[in-house]
Amino acid sequence: MAVTSTRNLPSDVEQIMTVARYDIFKHLRSRRLIAIFIIEAAILAVMLALPAILNQPYSDKPAEFVQNVLVFTFTNILIILAATMFAGDSICSEFQNRTGYLVFPNPIKKSSIYLGKFLSTALIVLVVVSVWYWVAIIAGYIVTGGVSTLAIESYGLAVLYAFAASSVGFLISSVLKGSTGALVLTFFLLFMIFPLVDSVGTLGGIEPVPSITYQAGAIDAVMTDPYPQNWVEYANETIGLPFNIYFFYPSVASSAAVMLGYIVICNLAGIFLFKRREMVG
Amino acid sequence: MTQEPIVLQNLTKDYGKGFRAVDDLSLTVMPGSFVGFLGPNGAGKTTTIKMLTNLLTVTSGHAYLNGIDVSSNPKGALGGVGAVVETPEFYPFLTPNETLEYLGAIRGMPKADVRKRSKEVLELVKMTEWSNVRIGKFSKGMKQRIALAQALLHEPTIVLLDEPTSGLDPRGMVEVREVLKELKKLHYTVFMSSHLLNEVQEVCSEAALIDHGKLMAYDSVSNLSTKIDSKKLEVRIADQVRGDAMDKLREFQGVRLLNIVNEQQFFIDFSGDEQAQADLLLKIQGLGYRVVSFKESGVALENLYMSLIKSSR
Question: B50 exposed, middle or buried (CB, 10 Å; 0-12, 13-18, 19+)?
């Protein structure tokens, strides 16, 4: 056997696809994917069966049917769970589990590794959200005989939200050292911290436009006809309301724009930090 | 830039709090050399290899692989390199064959080549029978052998190894050393860090000694060995050590120090060629001792290494 010279290396795009392919392989063999599908199936089964169990009629409007099945709280939790499980430790696990020692000394840019992993996570969360929506949309079609474009719009926003939440997870994963810390922070940031900030802002009469979780509200709002408008319940001492109460609803356009902003900014920052990160210890 | 496989130019790495792990290190590795990179723990060996493999950023200076600067073009520089740094972990959900397919694909190897080479390298590291078993439950030694296999998969021009036998049991160490000897036969350019002097003396053609991040010596192992003017001889006898005989032995030409370990064993620091060493054995027997064993203790590099390390502290 002779020692040969270097061969032509694949392009960055080819390497991104290779990393994505094997990362999908990882997800397919992981318990996390099975767990999230079990959770998803259980909630869908309950929500689809609930009206029948309670002897209540199903909605005859396609959008309302989907909205009733995919209660926004569940959609939100499902997306946050998926983003946490499939993005939260994607980057830091390479350092913590020392697999970086295997992959990083190869002729591949760190940005390609990052993008390949993000692509794989995006595909997995897309599948999770698609199953969630399309089961409800198809069930709605069977029951109501129609498919609403509003449900499709909601699906599009939910996919964007899943990508944006995953981007937040990737950014956290690029910063933190340990997988557990990254997973916990991703979950609590999306599930508690952002919504808490949204609530504080809303109480003060400030629409929390930059917040990803506030903008996620459009996923549900879009299925409400007519589209809900911002309004204020003004302070009224005679009815015991000491301060104004504000109700804000993000528009579809602002929601999509903010989600896209998160996807771009979080991933650019994540790539920058990942490239600078050293394999120490 | 020159086309020597590995060129380090004034390579320096500072960590926080003013700690300089590698200090203005310069050396050139010629094609086909098997260089042992020696130094005590914390000398800067792993840091150097990590800078060569772009796992750490360079503070100043340059590291070139096949003439390409690792810092400015890591993808190009690492194209012809196979590396085992520290003890890498593997994706537990993949088998050795799948791992090699993945890494081969990253390097742009056609599938048929990957399959052929996977078979060859797994055979080389004696892991063929485990090729389709998920790595998750492999022992450290098995993982280290797979790590060597992946480093050789693409027939690199340069192989970088960071203490490849570290943490292995004696059998694992012997097996990995056998693989290293095979690499030497195949004329790879190998740069291997180690703190095991016998390992370096056994498999390397050149050795670079480093301490506190500075290069102390760099030459062929044979040249470095000749710089050492004394060796340690271990003598075991079937009789009891006698004081008068020991005094006579101390007067023998070339004997610098005599250290009695127990009633039937002593060490001699001896300076002299092989003829003089043979005469010394005759002298010991002439003193009435029945010699059970008479052998060099430790390795030739050890004395040089210790004296250089001492002088740098």
Answer: buried
Please report the ipTM that was assigned to this predicted complex: 0.88
Three-state secondary structure call for residue B249: helix
How many Å from the N-terminal Cα to the C-terminal Cα in chain B?
Answer: 35
At a CB cut-off of 8 Å and minimum separation 6, what does A115 contact? Answer: A16, A19, A267, A271
Cα A217 from Cα A197, distance rounded (Å): 14
Domain ranges across chain A: 12-188+252-276
Is the alpha carbon torsion for A30, A33, A35, A41 positive or negative? negative
Residues in chain A closer than 8 A to B87 (CB atoms): 98, 101
pLDDT tens string A203-247: 999 999 999 999 999 999 999 989 999 999 888 877 777 888 899
User: Which residues 88-117 in chain B show a CB within 8 A of chain A?
Assistant: 88-91, 93-94, 98-99, 102-103, 105-109
CATH code of the domain made up of B6-225:
3.40.50.300
Inter-chain touch B147–A102, beta carbons under 8 Å: yes
Domain B231-312 has CATH 3.40.50.2300: no
